[in-house]
Amino acid sequence: MSLDVANQTESAHASFPFPDGPEWTERVRTPSSERCREMWALWEMPEHIQMHSLLVTRVALGIAEMVREKILPGLDIDQVLAAAMLHDVAKIYTIRHGGSHSQIGAAWVQERTGNPVVARAVLHHVDWPFAMDLQRYPVSLIVCYSDKRVRHTEIVTLDERFADLQERYGVNAKARHHIQQSLEQGRAIERLFSEGLKVELNAYSFDSRRMV
Ligand SMILES: [Fe+2]
Fold first, then answer.
1. What is the distance between the alpha carbons of residues 169 and 117, in angstroms, rounded to a whole number?
2. How many Cβ atoms from other residues are within 10 Å of residue 45's Cβ?
3. 108-136 confidence digits (pLDDT tens)
4. Which of 34, 46, 127, 196 is the most exposed place for a label (fewest CB within 10 A)?
5. Cα of 73 to ligand 1 centre, how many Å?
6. What are the distances in angstroms from CA 153 to CA 59, 122, 146?
7. Residues lining ligand 1 (ion), CB within 5 A?
8. What does the pLDDT look like over 15-37, one tens digit per residue?
């Protein structure tokens, strides 16, 4: 999505103070973890992507609980759970057939669940195009950041995750530039959370909810 289009969409949403809030999803259900697993099966998600998604979900829920406690009491944790579980649901399809796994995954999730908050988080989990605003987009920002903290099936720092991406996908200058930009965005989201939560997320262990 171009920045112009993103900005237009952003202003169209401006009348809603909290796009990830309940007024956007009051007529639809958020899928439970069981429903998410049914979608994994339906779309043939391989086991290693299931493991990756569960670890992203663990990180996302750890952050979501802190965000709800310290910043947004109205945060719907179930939306974070569903979006984290489903963020890579179309990965294997695009490996087989091409295309953008975030766009196709979001289309599937929107069609099947009708939940715009969960679908938005799937759509933008690689690059976040709107305002870095935790009050407005907590679900998307939590999932986008959490995915950047999991390398395959291991919780790592942003630097470790992006070193791996550069090694695997940094095949030319353009690709390396894009990966670097994505790292910068991950750092910006990390600062946003760290400042809001008064916790250094970079050094946070999501295994024990204690600093490593
Ligand atoms: Fe992904």
1. 29
2. 23
3. 999 999 999 999 999 999 999 999 999 99
4. 34
5. 28
6. 12, 19, 12
7. 88
8. 555 567 666 666 678 999 999 99
